[in-house]
Amino acid sequence: MYKEEGIKGLFRGNGLNCVRIFPYSAVQFYVYQKIKFLLLKPGDTELNNYQRLFAGAMCGTASVAATYPLDLVRTRLSIQTANLAKLDKSKVKAGEKPPGVLHLLIKIYKEEGGVLALYRGVWPTTLGVAPYVAINFAVYEQLKEFAPDSSPIMKLLLGATSGGIAQTLTYPFDLLRRRFQVLSMGGNAGELGFQYNSVWHALTTIVKTEGWRGMYKGLTANLFKVVPSMAVSWLCYEEVKQWMVSL
């Protein structure tokens, strides 16, 4: 990627990702706190692990529903200028300017099936995000109970650990999410090297053609992103929450 697109290529789509992550995280933490408040019994201060998993799954689902079209566009933009021979129909040609966010949203809406097209791949995404967020929140809250202190460094470590565990356990669904989001970019069936009719068909096809390791293709690179991002995310959440409570 660096050789073909330079430094800018490494950050392609990051501006949109920043636009997406604000409402995504806001919805996620807000819904979690609301559900936590509803589930807490009189006298309790913390949820049990089953309640944490449920609250995490609900807030993960809500955040996907609120921001999925932006996630779809982000994925498209991040690969649309890549030098992939099988994407000749959809990729940006040499010298052409990549499409803007609004332009791509309108293009997907008009050419690929309206509102439903903007949510193509939302089912496998939700299947992945719901358990990922559930495990992330449950593990973080559990680890926090055993933490020797509540320093910023400790919060970073807890966030990194919970994010890494959650991502590893649910990564196959993240793989499905990205593949479903780019399926329509290949044009005719098979141009991308894969074609799926459903989530189950995708899972069985990947296992048959790529083996069980195929379900975790790209996990290492993904952890390099998720681990530090979740560490910082949890630290910011805890610090902002503490600051707001003190007001």
TrEMBL record:
It is a multi-pass membrane protein. One of its GO terms (cellular component) is mitochondrial inner membrane. Solcar repeats lie at residues 1-38, 47-146, 150-243. Pfam families: Mito_carr. One of its GO terms (biological process) is transmembrane transport. InterPro entries: MCP (IPR002067), MCP_dom_sf (IPR023395), MCP_transmembrane (IPR018108). Keywords: Membrane, Mitochondrion, Mitochondrion inner membrane, Repeat, Transmembrane, Transmembrane helix, Transport. It is found in: Mitochondrion inner membrane. Belongs to the mitochondrial carrier (TC 2.A.29) family. This is Mitochondrial substrate carrier family protein B. The lineage of its organism: Eukaryota, Fungi, Dikarya, Ascomycota, Saccharomycotina.
